[in-house]
Amino acid sequence: MRLVLLGPPGAGKGTQAGRLVARHGIVQLSTGDMLRAAVAEGTAVGKRARAIMERGELVPDDVMVEIIAGRIDSPDAAGGFILDGFPRTVAQAEALDKLLEDRGTRLDRVIEIGVDEAMLLARIENRVRETGGERADDNADTLRRRIAVYRRQTAPVADEYRRKGLLSRIDGMGTRDEVSAAIESSLAAVTVAPEPGGAG
Ligand code: AMP
């Protein structure tokens, strides 16, 4: 099964991706984790990405597409994957379509975890008030920026997938178990695409 998980920061994507991995035996491909590893290792990509990530902005599409192209070709991803944090722009989504098409496969489902943005912002404000200090303020600013970036650049990706009939929008305001149950029922009807290179 090949899935994409969309949702603003704070929606619980990481938690739900972990549960999908355990339940379906697919790998989680988190571009945020890959970038953080590149920053920690001080690679060329890491050096380029670091300041962008600190500002809560998006790393350029060509960099991201190259990273993800390498990962979906690795053997552990052959049996299926869940993309967590990619695609974040319409250009990335188009590049992903092309990558999968070239490999004779496609996405099976896109899950968008929806949360109340006003509630996310209220949580951030609260945390700033409680912790105070310059650093918490920096983080709150970054998080606010990331939510705005999601609305502006990633929400249109969900719209594209909706048009293609691939999107399941899940209410992310419930408990973790409620959200998992809703995701599982949205996947129950999915017919899985053939393996790349398989007879189909
Ligand atoms: P995440 O852990 O998915 O929230 O990602 C952390 C940060 O990494 C984001 O705020 C972006 O700066 C960067 N990032 C992760 N995935 C992407 C992507 N697909 N496109 C552009 N930037 C990304």
SSE order and pairing:
Layout: E1 2-6, H1 13-24, E2 27-30, H2 31-41, H3 44-55, H4 61-72, E3 81-84, H5 90-102, E4 109-114, H6 117-131, H7 134-163, E5 167-171, H8 176-187
Parallel strand pairs: 1-3, 1-4, 2-3, 4-5
Helix pairs in contact: 2-3, 4-5, 6-7
Bound molecules: adenosine monophosphate (AMP).
Adenosine monophosphate (AMP) binds next to helix 2 and helix 3.
Could you please describe the fold and organization of this structure?
- By secondary structure, the protein is of the alpha/beta class.
- A five-stranded parallel β-sheet has the order 2-3-1-4-5, sandwiched between helices.
- The protein has a single domain (2-187), classed as 3-Layer(aba) Sandwich (Rossmann fold).
- It has eight helices and five strands, in the order βαβαααβαβααβα.
- Helix 4 (61-72) packs parallel to helix 5 (90-102) and helix 6 runs antiparallel to helix 7.
- It is globular, with a radius of gyration of 17 Å.
- Bound molecules: adenosine monophosphate.
- Residues 9, 31-32, 35, 52-53, 56-59, 64, 85-86, 88, 92, 146 line the site of adenosine monophosphate.
